[in-house]
Design goal:
The chain is an alpha/beta fold and about 475 residues long. It is about 45% helix and about 20% strand.
Length: about 475
């Protein structure tokens, strides 16, 4: 069948009339199909899928009304133009109620009327199909975008949210839609005033508002996000305008920027440290040597004891810095995260019991395997738990939780900390002498060498959180690790 010749079915029991209409259809550029009764016509529709149907109402076997009724229950039914001698207005009204697209009286006085009616219904069909395709493309695009797309009503409750809500924030669209105040509850408390201002400005000024903010995943982790709010135009008069929103996950970008900054800091620190260590060690050895000689002569000298003790302390600091900056080569392999956490907990069990510190772990089942060094990671996990335990008094609890956030496997170590650390950025630097911090600089470097990151955060409700991120196996493979 020629694609440029739309098939049109004529359902007419009068053979002469049917043949005359078919000849006109052929001359007008259509492909004519014929049926002599209603049942034959329905069979032809289901077999040939015509673009339009010309239907007589008075038919044997099944009349035109029964054909219209049968087509009204089918999807993608072709438009029907009734051509009939039915002169009662009630019959015409009934035909339209059953779905007829147009009505022409028989006999057809002018085929120009039929030509106009046929072109009109085919154009409506084409437009309806274009709209349906556009709607399908729009729904497919919105549902499959790696962006969170949502719509808010005037009370800031969700009207719509796409499936990315689950990937980005842990809630399915159904869960999000069923949770009152879901959107604002997912905004970090410190950022909510700014986001509320953006909502008000978008509504009042009727223009887009853009801001960066932090969103809270269902598992408690933080998602760095770029939020865009746009007032929508009401689809019909009387319908309220909605706020449309798009959220872009910037977490990976922020992490990468942090990696770059940290890497540059380490390179600079390494160069400075090597130079400083060289400049310090030579005079340090001389000072210690002279002090030992003087000590032999003056064994009771308190000042010489202080000089020797400080010399040993400086030497220890230089050794710690050198060990921290010395390359550690991981030996990664594919393995799950949960058993490593469990092994570290078993190892630390007696130590934690002695301190009367409890550990509650919630390890997500079926986490994807990561390519990592299990021995080094066990050392990292142990260091984080030890640090948390050192900050707690008897009877308090450390909470561990694993999860997935886009391209990362996550481990969170959360514990109460009534007195915040004043300079948390120093936790991962190797210069502090306090024993409780000594494992953290090495832990941070080990995680970086495995392609991940280690962050520390303190919440307003007195909680401290270590967040360990390790890239999923596919990302590591792309990096040829």
């Amino acid at each position: 069948m020629d694609a440029t010749s739309p098939p049109v079915l004529v359902i007419e029991d009068d053979a002469d009339v049917r043949r005359g209409i078919s000849l006109w259809l052929t001359d007008a550029g259509y492909t004519a199909l014929e049926a002599g009764d209603g049942r034959e016509g329905l069979a032809c529709i289901r077999r040939e899928h015509p673009e339009a149907v010309l239907l007589d109402l008075r038919l044997p076997v099944l009349d035109g009304f029964e054909v219209l009724a049968a087509l009204s229950g089918e999807e993608n039914a072709p438009p029907v133009i009734v051509i009939s001698g039915q002169d009662e207005i009630t019959g015409v009204i009934r035909a339209f109620r059953l779905g007829a697209a147009d009505y022409l009286e028989k006999p057809i006085v002018s085929f120009d009327l039929l030509d106009h009616a046929l072109k009109a219904v085919l154009e409506r069909v084409r437009l309806a199909r274009d709209v349906a395709r556009a709607q399908t493309r729009y729904r497919t695009l919105v549902h499959n975008l790696p962006l969170l797309v949502f719509m808010l009503r005037a009370d800031h409750e969700l009207e719509f949210v796409n499936p990315c809500a689950q990937a980005m924030l842990g809630d399915s669209p159904e869960e999000a839609m069923g949770t009152p105040g879901w959107f604002l509850s997912r905004v970090h408390p410190d950022d909510r005033p700014r986001v509320r201002d953006c909502l008000k400005n978008a509504e009042a000024q009727e223009r887009s508002q853009v801001t960066e903010c932090r969103l809270l995943h269902k598992n408690g982790s933080t998602v760095q996000a770029l939020l865009t709010l746009m007032p929508s135009v009401p689809s019909e008069p009387g319908f309220p305008a909605l706020l449309e929103g798009i959220v872009v996950d910037l977490t990976d970008r922020v992490e990468l920027e942090r990696f770059v900054v940290q890497e540059e800091k380490l390179k600079t620190l390494g160069a400075i440290t090597a130079e400083v260590a060289h400049e310090i060690r030579n005079p340090l050895f001389s000072i210690a040597g002279f002090a030992h000689r003087l000590k032999a002569r003056l064994p009771e000298s308190r000042e010489l004891d202080i000089i020797l003790a400080e010399s040993r302390r400086l030497e220890a600091i230089l050794d710690r810095i050198g060990n921290y900056l010395h390359p550690v080569i991981p030996r990664p392999r594919l393995c799950p995260l949960a058993p490593i956490v469990t092994t570290a907990l078993d190892f630390l069990g007696p130590e934690l019991a002695a301190k009367d510190v409890q550990v509650v772990s919630r390890l997500t089942e079926n986490l994807p395997d990561a390519r990592l060094d299990p021995d080094l990671l066990s050392q990292v996990v142990s260091s984080l738990i030890r640090f948390a335990a050192s900050r707690l008094s008897g009877g308090q609890t450390v909470r561990l939780e694993t999860g997935v956030s886009h391209r990362f496997v996550l481990l969170e170590v959360r514990f109460p900390q009534p007195i915040p650390i004043k300079e948390p950025e120093l936790l991962f630097l190797p210069f502090e002498e306090k024993g409780e911090r000594m494992g953290l600089p090495l832990a941070s470097r080990l995680v970086k060498n495995m392609g991940g990151s280690l962050a520390f955060d303190q919440t307003d409700d007195g909680q401290a959180v270590f967040t360990l991120r390790l890239p999923l196996e596919t990302d590591l493979e792309r990096g040829n690790v």
